[in-house]
Design a protein that fits this description.
Elements: E1 9-10, H1 25-34, E2 39-42, H2 63-76, E3 82-90, H3 96-103, E4 110-114, H4 120-126, H5 131-147, E5 153-154, H6 170-187, E6 190-194, H7 209-217, E7 222-225, H8 238-248, E8 252-257, E9 260-265, H9 266-272
Parallel strand pairs: 1-2, 2-3, 3-4, 4-5, 5-6, 6-7
Antiparallel strand pairs: 8-9
Helix pairs in contact: 5-6, 6-7, 7-8
Length: 280
């Protein structure tokens, strides 16, 4: 008989402290229960020093507030549902020492690493007017982020395709991406399929199917995140993401607890996932 006990987590979502999300973690929790998840991992944008990218993240002095905000939802979660503390931290050359200290400042379950090409500081340092050179630099930083040892998984790993969608040519970048994935595979760091990519300039999940297949060929562990900035998007697109994962060659998906990875068979996740009753 199929197991109908919820198994899976949404591993990427935000709080209003990042200045571009809405909803208390309790509201994300309530949505997670409604859609049949086992839990959620809050991963708001990490603070950074000296005003770095301050418009889209919590300030350093708000860090303790963030931890308390998530813990309040953890404490209110009903039996059988978990709210875990995580964080989405930017990889940026020179910030490694700051992040090392930050990641040891709370009992995190999960640290998600991101290369955000679109923040002003990244563009100021690495945009030179050549989109193809910019794309190559992005994937170099993606590999470096895995090699830094700072992160459990890497978020939306082909995000740079949205920089200039009309100039995105996967086949032209295949070798660069393959080299980056070879380096990531050596680290054991997981990668994310991010369902919010369908709302971006190039409307497909991050990564797209070609890169996802290359990740599966290298047995790189995979997590699923909605990148929710409002509670209504919790688990959005997850069933489609499971389809994409199987088509790419994956048969398991990962979730993190206490910075340790657990793998769940996709078949078991499907069997455990019962659709909520329709609204009246």
């Amino acid at each position: 008989m199929p197991n109908t006990t919820p198994l899976f987590f949404d591993s990427h979502m935000h709080t209003p402290l990042c200045k571009h999300a809405v909803g208390h973690p309790v509201e994300y929790m309530e949505r997670g229960i409604e859609v049949g998840l086992a839990g959620i991992i809050m991963t708001c944008h990490s603070p950074m020093p000296d005003g770095f990218s301050h418009r889209v993240r919590m300030a350093p002095e708000q860090f303790e507030e963030y931890v308390a905000l998530v813990n309040s939802a953890t404490n209110l979660a009903p039996d059988g549902f978990e709210v875990r503390l995580g964080m989405e931290s930017d990889f940026f050359p020179g910030m490694e020492k700051w992040l090392t200290k930050l990641h040891s400042s709370a009992d995190f379950h999960y640290i998600l690493g991101s290369v955000h090409w679109h923040i002003p500081e990244y563009l100021d340092n690495f945009w030179r007017g050549d989109i193809h050179a910019f794309q190559r630099q992005y994937f170099e930083h993606l590999a470096e982020s895995a090699e830094s040892g700072l992160f459990d998984a890497l978020s939306h790993p082909d995000l740079v395709k949205n920089a200039k969608p009309d100039d995105w040519d996967f086949d032209a970048m295949r070798g660069v991406i393959g080299d980056a994935l070879d380096r990531i595979q050596q680290t054991g760091v997981a990668m994310e399929i991010n369902t919010s990519g369908k709302q971006k300039a190039l409307p497909e999940m991050n990564p797209g199917p070609e890169m996802l297949t290359m990740m599966a060929e290298r047995d790189i562990p995979i997590v699923i995140g909605s990148d929710s900035h409002n509670p209504g998007r919790v688990s959005d697109g997850f069933r489609e993401a499971l389809d994409f994962l199987e088509q790419a060659g994956y048969d398991t998906v990962s979730v993190f607890r206490e910075r340790k990875r657990s793998d769940y068979p996709i078949k078991m996740i499907r069997e455990s996932w019962v659709d909520p009753p329709p609204e009246d």
